[in-house]
Amino acid sequence: MSVNAILAAVQFVVDQQGQQTAVLLDLQTWDSLRYLLEELAEDERFGQLMLAVAGDEKFVSCW
Fold it and tell me: Is the pTM of this model over 0.85?
């Protein structure tokens, strides 16, 4: 599910004054969002690892 599809699937809960107070997601959308967030976290950890080993003389770049 794309980010645009996730955003389109969001439903808002409003209070008596019409102010948005919460968001509802169906389970499929929630699973897609959770997967996307997990992928982003893995990408961030990989980037941090690459920075950590960038100055390591034992590290041989493949690029």
Answer: no
